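Changelog note: in this version the structure field was regenerated for every chain. One regenerated record is shown below for reference.
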Amino acid sequence: MKSIAIDKTELDKALRKKLGEDAIAIEFQVERLHGGTIGDVLLVSGKAEIGGSEEPFCMVYKHQKKWSRYADPLSWRREYDLYDALPDDVFTDNLRRPACYHKNISDGEMWLWMEFAECVSGLDMTPEMYELAARELGRFQGRLHAGGYAGLKLTNVSSPDYIKQNYLHERSTEELYHYIRDGGCSLPRHLCKMIIDIDERCDEIFCRIERLPLIFCHRDFWVTNIFCSGKKVMLVDWDTAGWGYLGEDIASLVADDSDIDNMVENFTRCVKAYYEGFSEFAEAPDISENCIYEMMLIKFGYRLVGRYKNPYYGKCSEDAERTLQKIYEIGHIRL
């Protein structure tokens, strides 16, 4: 792993908040949890000497430099901002974000020191955990929606038309647009037609979506950002959060690098649980009016075509085709 310097002064501040007093001495090691071009996420663990005893600790350290996401230029610092804009009491014991022990921002760089929790995540999640995550997210969004977002100063959040802008941007990629329309495409024809049909009906589809309740969405609600323990869920990576439409997050939960074999079952379970959770607190349209199938294709259709045509970062063509096939099957389900 590339050596990453940890600022000892910042670590001291985070430990003071976590442990309740200053540490006399600290021993620690660093392990990368996630690596990429837009930031570093590390596990910092060790022992802190406090009052003659040694206290073990684990914290997540996130460092991110300023960068510009398409149609959302301030997303790089959003997680930092939301720790102020979203008070802890908007969350519940059953759905929450990691506790933040210390944060800092300066000259286009952001640092967060956050809670680490041993939980089940990613492709280790069971169908029951998918359903749990969907229900608790519905309850969280329903409570906020019913309360009218009173007192929340949500200034740096993504806009309601974020997925529409991204869809139109991806559709404008001529390579993929023409690929699914010409005779040389090896993707099964019914899957190409599925995406073409969405393109041809997009104005009508967005009119339907925009009649759904406008709510506060996580917008990156996929399995690696969801951590389950018992009946509780912790959500990480809030940097794309903002205003969206009912069901948008469930489209990600079901279709974004998820459990392909169980996608159809997870769709049925998650949509029902999500609507039930939301309806505990706020009025929702009839579940038969959901647009989650369409949202899956709007959010991931061209991305999956691109992955099928040009596999990258270990993402294979076969998985892209299988995912599109499962979405096709979901399109024939009536709830």
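Spot check on this record: The two ends are 48 Å apart (CA to CA). The domain at 8-115 is CATH 3.30.200.20 (Phosphorylase Kinase; domain 1).
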